[in-house]
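Recall that a protein's primary structure is simply its ordered list of amino acids. Everything else, from secondary elements to tertiary packing, is in principle encoded there. The following example makes that idea concrete.
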Amino acid sequence: MSKKVPPKFCDGTPYSFWKNKVEMWQLVTPVPKKEQAIVVVLEAFEGNTKAERAVSELSTEHLHHDNGMLRLFAHMDTAFKTEKVDEAYTAYTNFTQFSKQELMSMNDYVLEFEHLNHKLALHDMKLPNTILAFRLLDGANLGPNERQLALTVASDLKYETMKSALKRIFQSPKPLNNVQEESYVGSSRYAKKRINKGSSKQNPPDKTGRPTRCRICESTMHWAPECPHRNNARCVGEVAEAVTADVDQCKEVELTLATNLSSNEIFVIESSHSAILDTACTRTVCGETWFNSYCSNLAANLKGKVKVCKKRSVFKFGDGEKVISSKEAVIPAFIAGKKLSIKVCIVASQIPLLLSKASLKKASTQLDLSQDKVKMFGKPVKVHLTSSGHYCIEILPRCNNVNLSDDVLLSDTLSQDEVVKALKKLHVQFGHASEENLLKLLKNANAWKKDYATVISDVVQSCEVCAVHKRPVARPVVSLPWASDVNETVAMDLHEIEPGLWYYHMIDLFSRFS
């Protein structure tokens, strides 16, 4: 396009749009200012009947001036005033009726939203920051749980924060078009990499006979190391699942599964000031981020109730990495109208407070899964679901004048029956270990208590399997003599010769005299 030729004002082109382009053209054109208005009239309005009719009233002397363009625009503004109102209404309608389509990505939705909002601003219609954030959220067509998650992440209710939250949480994975998927085929000792070019071969089957899947995108054509989404995967929904504790010869390991940190950050924010009911968790545990946030929001008279001490525990996460907890804390809480304190291990990880099965038992927790209702201490507790489907209850005391005492301490201390059950399990899992081996095992794991000695002895002695398979006592080839002198040891017995006739038989075991 030549810089000497102004933008065309075609029939159907919005006047404001054309005017904006002409103002840009004025900055770059070599046409003198006096002649610009005349050039625009001669070149720009060809084919636009309304525009030609509007400028036909203007004389050459009126336009051939240094302010000729200002005079032209003033006249055109009057002629197209009605159209300007229509454009404003169209911009408003397009903005209010716009929403995300089913196949539209979140990035494309946000870009189109900003484009329509910019058009609205050109007509002096600017929405407040908070209303703009709500409008962006409403138009995203999210479900109730997804909408609540976005509101939780964008806590300050600003447009930029909401835009960032939507793009970060609901970012679509890259398409698989033109991507060569790879899979592994091989024996237990050797693995060969194969490029999958339209082949119908799948991953090797698991123990149930089903093809193994990629843990990132659930594909049956490759495994996680070769997944095309490996660098930008968002594995949502695997957070805070726990398994049984394991004990080795040098340390105690509590197993708690947690995954993708970006998802966990959302999980922590979502459950701030709340506790997750995790019946599979063996120890009550929380991350440092959650702990610091919770303590900072406590009332001044409750912060003194927080007690922190050093205690070493090891937690293994879903990626196999072991995280060491070097401290344990007692924090004040308020559940079901009851004042209590919770003993919790603190780890350097992005997880919320996970209430263990032992703590839930002490609180007499009842879960009604069909109605999504929870009772603790015999009273109903308000519960809500996180985006990953976990039950979550609020525990932060809301009243500043609540004077918490240690009426109830939720800790992972086991009852006597639970101790017996746990030691029985260890006895069986370690091949019906003897009392000595169990004692060494617990001491090496820093889990030994003096009260366990009697329980271990009872567990081993009462084990039926140990009694059946107990190693028999070796029999001597020759017995040792019972006596070393006469009358030292005498053997006695009764013998019946015939019915009713008995005699008493005695033998000296040294001399064999009878």
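The first strand starts at residue 181 and ends at 186. Confidence is low (pLDDT under 50) at residues 173-199, 233-262, 399-407.
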